[in-house]
Design brief:
Elements: E1 14-17, E2 20-23, E3 28-30, E4 38-43, E5 46-51, H1 56-63, E6 68-69, E7 76-80, E8 85-89, E9 106-107, E10 122-123, E11 134-135, H2 147-150, E12 156-162, E13 168-174, E14 180-186, E15 216-218, E16 238-241, E17 244-248, E18 255-259, E19 273-275, E20 285-293, E21 298-305, E22 313-320, H3 337-343, E23 344-348, E24 353-359, E25 365-371, E26 382-388, E27 394-401, E28 412-416, E29 422-426, E30 434-439, E31 451-454, E32 474-476, E33 485-492, E34 495-502, E35 507-511, E36 517-524, E37 529-535, E38 542-549, E39 554-562, H4 568-571, E40 580-591, H5 596-599, E41 613-625, E42 632-633, E43 642-646, H6 660-666, E44 671-676, H7 685-688, H8 698-712, E45 721-726, H9 728-739, E46 745-749, H10 755-761, H11 769-773, H12 777-786, E47 800-805, H13 814-826, E48 830-835, H14 845-862
Parallel strand pairs: 11-42, 43-44, 43-45, 45-46, 46-47, 47-48
Antiparallel strand pairs: 1-2, 3-6, 4-5, 5-8, 7-8, 9-10, 12-13, 13-14, 14-15, 16-17, 17-18, 18-19, 20-21, 21-22, 22-23, 24-25, 25-26, 26-27, 28-29, 29-30, 30-31, 32-33, 33-34, 34-35, 36-37, 37-38, 38-39, 40-41, 41-44
Helix pairs in contact: 8-9
């Protein structure tokens, strides 16, 4: 019988689903509606109804009236229709529904069993019906991880802060609101609220993570979007100060001031936000990375000025606040341009870029990072310190790090300790981003600039590339004055860790948290609360409260806010593919000085560099996600299709954070390899600089070698290899399809087809990025042309799908249009999907969903032999494809 029968009885009952008999909870009274094939599962204290087929009856059942509980049972119902799952929390001691494939004996409790067995019958393997997994080809599996779940239900968590009351305020981007970013605050402090507020020991996450019940309240008023566009990538869009929020608003890029405690005029909802800088058409003035200077009652921040003609000007400015900005009832009015000229003062200028303006605890000094073209912030930067004079100007500037003769370094993340010492991260000497501190010298000293000493030397990375403002990889423990301790995030072999650094002993002690990716950590509030932004292979990005036992060097954690509103590890137990690190052999090319110019040229079809180059064997890394779905098994001897994913940047890294967009593929029978090719971060400067002068060579080689290695290991199907990437990863995708024959199809999101045009048209932040990755355009123009896929379409013989936002200011939409037109004219299957209102990186739920579904359907239609999808996905036009 394929329908789920009516279930009755207060003492328990038996339900039949697809021929499988399942014991059920004692006090469930009724379950009505003929529906499709399902399973009823017990997970801990949860009772789950899982959807196994598309059925309108079940949609009604889940969305409106899933169960009617008996009087006094105390069950809490949580309906998640979009997840095709309904969860019931059973009381301890109650009978509940057991896992369908359980081998434990189950006894029918009720007298009204309708499954054909009498009460008291023990359900065993003999009478349980067919309990075997369904055999189906890889890629054709049905999964409860829908495109709606993987895109629209996943928030985009940004920075977090701790206010004076000890409550956490975080930034969440909402795809369902067209990608709008909103500040949210805990309603109650840690340990309060409806939850137990208790601590958890460190988790391996083999068991599910229990979510905190602490709710959040929106602080950002309707119509506002907390987002900066400095450097286009933004970050550092808000600052919390006393009872105030100072934030950059996305649509106009003005700075707004808002009270945390005040409500709107009606006494409910969010408080009013008022601009303190003028809004100008075209977002001429943009702000980021602010810190409040209480001594002069101003916010010191980075400003990007687009109104002076030519390249935008970046500078550090001070913006005056109202006298009562930190307290009282507000009343800041928006200034005119003329008023702003009086209220905004340029403090530091002259270099091309600035980041991390940070004020010392006594308010007398300012530290900052700067750099100039053609460097990027991971190539070479300078750390400066200047005195804040009695008039508020910056005097007596000293370069603390970055200008030592013969020493290449990229200092980043300066931060003043509570006792006034300046700490920072640099890769000086060792090539690893480690912690250092600047020891200032007294005025009478002969070395008036002071000196720098290492806090800890490790082959580990204590920072990440500064693509956005606001990186925060370390913080100071609350008992700093008595026990100077730094709480730091560090990465080794692609995995993030939390550690405690004893500054006096220069010793690090790892702290187990159960998280394998930690984006930031900070300490704040009167009680010295520690919060981190973290994730793992089975836990999506979350804002996490961390209680550290500094004596035992251990920690307990509690999730404050997860990027997903349901407990993913529980709801999708068995469907989540946990990544493992794969190290594979690859090749690095060394060029002789005589052949250097020629070697910088074209890529050979077999991946070699033309010229007299010498090969050196090396290794690169990938995170491998095998297919995972407990309901299916593939036919004997079949291998899964592989999707090789190429991260953007390219100076960035693949990480272990749970992404349901990946699980969308793996739970349908795909394997994924997320490659950390030469040039990726997290492995030191030497690994990062493998790509120097070799863009389109090393990245392509490593991605092809990864796929070939997995085929040789018998892990994937060598005839069904696909590749996809975004931005720089989109370029590598196009280059791999053009210059190599490894992959059968590819997908590019806002990728680069013409390197020369990119160098001539892109925004200021990356205007000279290719100088390091290829060489200056004036000297190496032939290399730009030779490595541009658009110039070698005759070599491209694989189907291709492209996605691009029409407001992209980093990689213009013309890049995708050019390669689309060329591939279409060649007669290959190709599709171009363009999105109105999207920039560099899609934010709207409907566009994220369409990208995910279209990519899966495209691959299913163009791969050799095709894949019969279990999902009903809307078809779209693919040029030159005739099914």
């Amino acid at each position: 019988m394929n329908a789920l029968r009516t279930l009755r009885g207060s003492a328990g009952a038996l339900v039949e689903s697809g021929g499988v008999l399942i014991a059920t909870a004692k006090r469930v009274e009724s379950l009505r509606s003929p529906v499709g094939s399902h399973s009823l599962v017990r997970r801990g204290a949860q009772v789950v109804v899982r959807r196994r087929s598309v059925d309108s009856g079940l949609g009604e059942l889940l969305g409106e009236k899933p169960f009617s509980s008996g009087t006094g049972t105390g069950h809490h119902r949580s309906t998640c229709a979009d997840y095709h799952t309904t969860i019931f929390y059973a009381e301890e001691g109650e009978d509940a529904i057991w896992r369908r494939r359980s081998r434990l004996p189950i006894t029918v409790c009720g007298s009204d069993a309708r499954g054909g067995l009498a009460a008291g019958t023990e359900i065993s393997e003999d009478n349980m019906g067919n309990d075997k997994q369904i055999e189906a080809p890889y890629g054709a599996w049905r999964s409860p991880i829908s495109s709606d779940v993987a895109t629209g239900k996943m928030l985009r968590l940004g920075g977090a802060a701790i206010d004076d009351d000890g409550r956490v305020i975080w930034l969440e981007g909402r795809p369902s609101e067209s990608g709008r970013s909103v500040l949210v605050r805990e309603r109650e402090g840690p340990g309060d609220g409806d939850g137990d507020g208790g601590e958890r020991p460190p988790l391996s996450f083999s068991s599910a993570v229990e979510e905190s019940s602490i709710a959040g309240e929106d602080l950002t008023p309707e119509g506002f979007d907390v987002r900066s566009r400095v450097h286009e990538y933004g970050g550092g869009a808000f600052t919390i100060w006393r009872d105030s929020i100072l934030f950059t608003n996305g649509p106009d890029q003005s700075i707004y001031h808002q009270r945390i405690s005040n409500k709107d005029d009606s006494g409910t909802g969010t408080s009013i936000a008022r601009a303190i800088t003028p809004a100008e058409e075209g977002q001429v003035l943009r702000y980021a990375d602010g810190v409040v200077d209480e001594r002069f009652n101003r916010i010191v921040c980075v400003r990007e000025h687009h109104g002076r003609g030519g390249e935008p000007a970046n500078e550090i400015v001070g913006v005056k606040l109202a006298r009562d900005a930190g307290g009282g009832d507000g009343g800041i009015e928006q200034r005119t341009r003329r008023e702003e000229e009086k209220e905004v003062e340029v403090l530091v200028s002259g270099d091309d870029f600035y980041m991390f303006p940070r004020i010392s605890p006594d308010g007398k000094r300012l530290a900052w990072i700067s750099w100039c073209h053609p460097n990027m912030p991971w190539d070479q930067t300078c750390l400066w310190v200047g005195d804040i004079s009695q008039s508020g100007k910056i005097d007596k500037k000293i370069c603390v790090a970055g200008k030592s003769e013969g020493l290449l370094e990229a200092p980043t993340e300066p931060s003043w300790s509570p006792s006034g010492e300046l700490f920072f991260v640099s890769d000086r000497g060792s090539g690893w981003w480690n912690l250092y501190r600047w020891i200032d010298s007294p005025p009478s000293s002969s070395d008036g600039g002071g000196f720098v000493e290492a806090v800890l030397a490790m082959e580990a990375e204590f920072s990440r590339p500064a693509w956005i403002f606001g990186n925060r990889s370390y913080t100071f423990a609350p008992d700093w004055h008595s026990h100077p301790t730094i709480i730091a995030v560090y990465r080794q072999n692609g995995i993030a860790n939390l550690g405690l650094i004893d500054v006096r002993r220069m010793r690090l002690t790892p702290v187990e948290t159960g998280y394998t990716e930690i984006f930031s950590v900070q300490c704040g509030g009167a009680a010295g609360r520690v919060v981190m932004h973290a994730a793992s292979g089975v836990q999506p990005e979350s804002i996490v409260d961390v209680k550290i036992d500094y004596e035992r060097r251990s920690a307990t954690t509690k999730v404050i806010k997860s990027a997903c509103d349901v407990d993913v590890a529980k709801v999708f137990e068995g469907y989540l593919s946990v990544p493992r690190v794969v190290e594979f052999p690859t090749t690095v090319y060394d060029d002789g000085e005589e052949e250097e110019e020629e070697a910088e040229g074209a890529v050979g079809k077999e991946g070699g560099v033309k010229g007299g180059s010498e090969e050196r064997k090396w290794t690169a890394f990938a995170l491998f996600y095998p297919p995972s779905n407990p309901d299916y098994v593939a036919p004997k001897g079949e291998k899964p299709p592989l999707l090789v994913r190429i991260h953007g940047g390219p100076t960035a890294a693949a990480d272990t954070a749970l992404r349901l967009s990946y699980q969308y593929f793996t739970s349908r029978g795909w394997a994924i390899a997320d490659v950390n090719y030469g040039g990726s971060t997290g492995y030191g400067r030497a690994f990062r600089e493998r790509l120097k002068g070799r863009l389109g060579i090393v990245d392509v080689e490593d991605c092809c070698r990864c796929a070939e290695y997995l085929v040789a290991q018998g892990m994937v199907d060598g005839n069904r290899l696909t590749i996809e990437g975004s931005s720089a990863g989109g370029y590598t995708t196009l280059a791999a399809l053009t210059f190599r024959d490894t992959f059968s199809a590819g997908s590019s999101r806002y990728g680069i087809a013409d390197l020369r045009i990119l160098a001539e048209e892109t925004h200021k932040f990356e205007a000279r990025y290719l100088d390091g990755l290829i060489g200056p355009l004036s000297t190496y123009g032939h290399a730009y042309d030779d490595r541009s896929p658009i110039n070698h379409v005759e070599n491209l013989r694989r189907p291709l799908i492209l996605f691009h936002g029409l407001e992209d200011a980093v990689v213009p939409p013309s890049q995708s249009r050019a390669i689309y037109t060329a591939v279409k004219e060649k007669g290959l299957p190709v599709a171009l999907i363009e999105f109105e209102g999207e920039r560099h990186g899609f934010r709207k739920a409907e566009n994220l969903k369409k990208t995910l579904e279209y990519q899966l359907l495209f691959f299913a239609r163009v791969l050799p032999g095709g894949i019969q999808l279990a999902d009903d996905i809307e078809h779209f036009d693919i040029d030159n494809l005739h099914d």
